[in-house]
């Protein structure tokens, strides 16, 4: 409707203009170079309009001819760019599919078609890595460092290479440089924290850990445990340097973070015993026993109450039993104290209860000791020892990364160097223990630990 009205309006304007010109007749005369031309006004007007139309059309044709080469070049660049991005896409698909030759071919093709080094260099580096050409990949990553927009990508590629090759010193240096470029990147903070911890830089690792938790790279509860482990390592380090107060302070902080964490409770209790603070040490063990009964806690507790007579020691271990009555470890601890006190019946009762909960080699060995002490029955003792040899392995500190076992807990695995990987469980893989001379300096422990 609106279009029809607009058309009628334009027709009315034309008709009105024609009527206006018809009511005002006249002539137009042109004298030029001795010639004279006369025409009615309306004819002159039409000629003028036609001339303007022809001039406009000629201008457009001329402009089109002038711009044709530019349009051809623009179209050619667009097609080239399209082919380049198609090659880039095909290269990324080849990377995902593990097709190294196609990835390398598409990388070269994209590099020739596109003038965008950030994209093509990354594809070329990944293609080189896929083919196992780490040297070429490293060259591409170094080239990416020269451009601000690709520097972080290049740093990440070099960092990944260093970690893969096991060069932790280089990896740590690169991770710290990368943090200078992107300080709040979650994966980088998690990687840097792990590298600093593996390097034994406990104070720096603790600071990075806090940033990683805030960035969401590490869950809060997991971060709490990691921080407790770092504090324990700082405690060992302070003790090696003769700073007993700092060692005790760090151990206390670790225990406060995780009261049920056995290494923290054992460490704190031993330091308190060394400082002749027996009552606080006993409370630490009792508090931890409520959550995590453990033979190392029982060993520390025996040292704390060593000055008491045998019967009193049994009563104190019975106190621990009441903290966790359904734990086999509680009954084994009471049985050990009862054997020392020659309370044979009570020792047998608790050993039987421990084996009902879960038979272990330690329970069988204690039963053999009981047979020797109470009845002097060597044959019965040998039978129990034979059962111990065929029983499942006792729990031991076992690395979750490589399966290596250790008789002593540490923040780092002495076999593979993984941080916070030791857990108290039965070993599943037979990995030889490290010799003392093979232990890295970061894992060295004072004699009192």
Automatic annotation (TrEMBL):
Domain HemY N-terminal, residue spans: 26-132
Pfam families for the chain: HemY_N, TPR_19
Superkingdom of this protein's organism: Bacteria
GO cellular component: membrane
Bilayer-crossing regions: 42-62, 83-100
Location(s) in or outside the cell: Membrane
Position of the signal peptide: none
UniProt-listed SUPFAM superfamilies: TPR-like (SSF48452)
Name of the molecule in the record: Enzyme of heme biosynthesis (HemY-like)
Organismal lineage: Bacteria, Pseudomonadati, Pseudomonadota, Alphaproteobacteria, Rhodospirillales
């Amino acid at each position: 409707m609106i279009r029809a009205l607009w058309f009628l309006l334009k027709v009315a304007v034309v008709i009105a203009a024609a009527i206006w010109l018809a009511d005002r007749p006249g002539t137009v005369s042109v004298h030029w170079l001795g010639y004279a031309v006369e025409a009615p006004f309306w004819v002159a007007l039409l000629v003028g309009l036609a001339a303007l139309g022809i001039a406009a059309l000629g201008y457009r044709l001329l402009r089109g001819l002038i711009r044709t080469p530019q349009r051809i070049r623009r179209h050619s660049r667009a097609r080239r760019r399209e082919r380049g991005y198609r090659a880039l896409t095909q290269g990324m698909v080849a990377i995902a599919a593990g097709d190294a030759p196609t990835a390398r071919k598409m990388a070269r093709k994209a590099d020739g078609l596109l003038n965008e080094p950030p994209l093509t260099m990354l594809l070329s580096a990944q293609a080189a890595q896929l083919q196992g050409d780490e040297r070429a990949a490293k060259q591409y990553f170094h080239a990416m460092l020269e451009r601000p927009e690709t520097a972080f990508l290049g740093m990440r590629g070099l960092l990944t290479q260093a970690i893969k090759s096991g060069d932790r010193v280089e990896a740590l240096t690169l991770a710290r440089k990368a943090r200078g470029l992107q300080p709040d990147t979650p994966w980088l903070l998690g990687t840097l924290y792990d590298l600093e911890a593996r390097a034994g830089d406990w104070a720096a690792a603790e600071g990075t850990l806090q940033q990683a938790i805030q960035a969401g790279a590490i869950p809060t509860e997991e971060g709490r445990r990691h921080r407790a482990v770092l504090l324990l390592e700082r405690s060992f380090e302070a003790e090696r340097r003769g700073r007993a107060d700092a060692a005790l302070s760090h151990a206390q902080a670790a225990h406060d973070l995780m009261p049920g964490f056995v290494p923290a409770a054992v460490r704190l209790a031993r330091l308190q015993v060394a400082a002749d603070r027996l009552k606080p040490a006993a409370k630490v063990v009792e508090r931890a026993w409520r959550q995590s009964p453990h033979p190392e806690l029982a060993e520390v507790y025996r040292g704390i109450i060593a000055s008491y007579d045998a019967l009193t020691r049994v009563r104190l271990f019975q106190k621990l039993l009441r903290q966790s009555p359904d734990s086999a470890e509680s009954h084994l601890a009471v049985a050990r104290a009862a054997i020392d006190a020659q309370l044979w019946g009570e020792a047998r009762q608790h050993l039987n209860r421990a084996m009902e909960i879960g038979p272990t080699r330690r329970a069988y060995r204690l039963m053999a000791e009981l047979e020797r002490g109470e009845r002097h029955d060597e044959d019965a003792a040998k039978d129990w020892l034979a059962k111990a040899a065929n029983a499942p392995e006792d729990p031991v500190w076992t690395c979750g990364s490589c399966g290596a076992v250790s008789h002593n807990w540490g923040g780092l695995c002495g076999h593979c160097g993984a941080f916070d990987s030791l857990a108290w469980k039965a070993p599943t893989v037979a990995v030889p223990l490290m010799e003392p001379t093979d232990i890295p300096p970061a894992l060295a422990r004072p004699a009192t630990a």
